């Protein structure tokens, strides 16, 4: 596979810093870095973004995530490797990524399950991570960015 073009954040360099600032802001919410990395990985898996799956698994390992848990993310509901808080974050990630799959994509049950484990700042961090990841996935998939390529 070959990229269709350079990553849009390289073509329009003023876009990169605000995106990086958003990513840094997700780290200010008090959510474990490994949880945010799991959210990023799951969203990227759903969207089929190989560049983000590659980058996400690498950064998750750097944050201390195990290979066993990384391999289980795609089947998190059936896996014994995740706690209830992580499951709530992953459920939110799936629902907020698949907005068109149902009328009320992020149901009250999904929201309340997450709110049982995370305060408002933590929920904000999770929602921002989901949104930023979806944006990256769309940029990378549309332009066919190659896994492992720098942006």
Automatic annotation (TrEMBL):
From which residue to which does any coiled coil extend? none
Check the record and name the InterPro entries matching this protein: AhpD-like, AhpD_core, CMD-like
Which part of the chain is the Carboxymuconolactone decarboxylase-like domain?
A: 13-95
Tell me the superkingdom of the source.
Bacteria
Q: Which NCBIfam families match?
A: ahpD_dom
Q: What's the name of the protein?
A: Carboxymuconolactone decarboxylase family protein
Source species taxonomy: Bacteria, Bacillati, Actinomycetota, Actinomycetes, Mycobacteriales
């Amino acid at each position: 596979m070959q990229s269709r073009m350079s990553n849009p954040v390289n073509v329009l360099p003023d876009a990169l810093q605000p995106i990086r600032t958003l990513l840094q802001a997700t780290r200010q919410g008090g959510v474990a870095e490994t949880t945010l990395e799991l959210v990023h990985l799951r969203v990227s898996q759903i969207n089929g973004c190989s560049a983000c799956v590659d980058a996400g698994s690498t950064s998750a390992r750097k944050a201390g995530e195990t290979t066993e848990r990384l391999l289980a993310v795609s089947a998190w509901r059936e896996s014994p490797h995740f706690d209830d808080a992580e499951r709530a974050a992953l459920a939110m990630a799936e629902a907020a990524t698949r907005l068109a799959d149902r009328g009320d994509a992020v149901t009250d049950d999904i929201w309340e399950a997450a709110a049982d484990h995370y305060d408002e700042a933590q929920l904000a961090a999770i929602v921002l991570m989901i949104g930023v990841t979806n944006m990256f996935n769309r940029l990378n998939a549309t332009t066919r960015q190659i896994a492992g390529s720098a942006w």
